[in-house]
């Protein structure tokens, strides 16, 4: 009798744990979706949406053109990764590098039009109203905040530094962090690219 009760309680606990795990997984999947729709203005003045890049991998970096260090380094890393693939003969048109500003106050269309010339020729820089930028940053869970600093003319922007990879269907695939190198970017995309004929 005692054994039957222990087995019955164990079964109840197992079912309860299973149901809680299922509920947690469902809630987490629904609430943790990274990315989403956005419509912003490109450095060319053109209005672009994430849906304009369907069928391509978007490599998205959030930063700002006045950034003294990390932003140019990460955009250069993205550029070098794409350049490496192109040197090896791969067609990289399936990859769309994007730079979304977190400083729309200073990153106007004309400022970004000048900024992108230092990086990959297909890099598209995007800006918008502060509300637009806050909306897309929230969808990608990107933190940013204006920071005044003594001895610096103007201000800096505190922000996270990741390259988000979104798949051809618009869904999150992976991210590259500061520890990743251009070769890591190239290695991740070799299996999905074709060589030019």
Summed up, what is this model?
By secondary structure, this protein is an alpha+beta fold. It has helices spanning 2-31, 70-87, 109-115, 130-139, 182-189, and strands at 39-42, 47-49, 57-63, 95-101, 124-127, 144-147, 156-159, 163-166, 172-176. Helix 2 (70-87) packs across helix 5.
Descriptive notes:
The protein is α+β, with helices and mostly antiparallel strands and 197 residues long. Helices cover 37% and strands 21% of the residues. It has helices at 2-31, 70-87, 109-115, 130-139, 182-189; strands at 39-42, 47-49, 57-63, 95-101, 124-127, 144-147, 156-159, 163-166, 172-176. The strands form 2 sheets. A 7-stranded mixed beta sheet has the order 2-1-5-4-3-8-9, sandwiched between helices. It is globular and about 55 Å long. Mean pLDDT is 86; it is low at 3-31.
């Amino acid at each position: 009798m005692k054994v039957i009760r222990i087995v019955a309680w164990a079964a109840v606990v197992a079912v309860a744990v299973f149901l809680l795990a299922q509920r947690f997984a469902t809630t987490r999947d629904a609430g943790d979706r990274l990315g989403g729709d956005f419509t912003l203005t490109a450095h060319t003045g053109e209005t672009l949406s994430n849906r304009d890049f369907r069928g391509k991998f978007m490599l998205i970096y959030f930063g700002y053109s006045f950034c003294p260090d990390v932003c140019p380094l990460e955009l250069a890393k993205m550029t070098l990764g794409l350049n490496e693939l192109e040197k090896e003969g791969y067609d990289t048109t399936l990859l769309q590098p994007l730079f979304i500003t977190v400083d729309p106050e200073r990153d106007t269309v004309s400022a970004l039009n000048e900024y992108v010339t230092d990086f990959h020729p297909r890099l598209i820089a995007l800006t918008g109203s502060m509300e637009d930028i806050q909306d897309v940053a929230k969808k990608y869970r990107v933190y940013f905040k204006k920071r005044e600093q003594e001895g610096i003319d103007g201000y800096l922007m505190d922000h996270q530094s990741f390259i988000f990879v979104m798949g051809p269907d618009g869904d999150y695939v992976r991210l590259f962090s500061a520890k990743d190198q251009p070769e890591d970017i190239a290695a991740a995309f070799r299996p999905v690219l074709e060589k030019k004929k």
